[in-house]
């Protein structure tokens, strides 16, 4: 599963709009829309902000899905 699909799935599970998620994560609607449609690769900081805004505890999983190595991979 790619990050855009995972983001959309988590957002829909929590019944939250892109605009509301953007407000909670301090990310613009247009950037979120681009991420969810696979047109923009989010930075690590954006992935982490989205995880907190969605109250998703497994931040490492989201980072891996988004293509970022985990701290375990760096050892």
TrEMBL record:
This protein's name: Helix-turn-helix domain-containing protein
Lineage summary: Bacteria, Bacillati, Bacillota, Bacilli, Bacillales
Coiled-coil blocks: none
Gene3D superfamilies: lambda repressor-like DNA-binding domains (1.10.260.40)
The HTH cro/C1-type domain, residue ranges: 7-62
Entries under SUPFAM superfamilies matching the protein: lambda repressor-like DNA-binding domains
InterPro entries tied to this protein: Cro/C1-type_HTH, Lambda_DNA-bd_dom_sf
Record organism: Paenibacillus foliorum
CDD domains from the UniProt entry: HTH_XRE
Superkingdom field: Bacteria
GO molecular function: DNA binding
Entries under Pfam families matching the protein: HTH_3
């Amino acid at each position: 599963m790619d990050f855009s699909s995972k983001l959309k799935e988590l957002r829909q599970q929590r019944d939250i709009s892109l605009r509301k998620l953007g407000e909670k994560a301090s990310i613009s609607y247009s950037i979120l829309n681009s991420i969810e449609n696979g047109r923009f690769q989010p930075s690590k900081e954006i992935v982490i902000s989205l995880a907190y805004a969605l109250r998703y505890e497994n931040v490492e999983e989201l980072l891996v899905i988004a293509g970022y190595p985990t701290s375990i991979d760096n050892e």
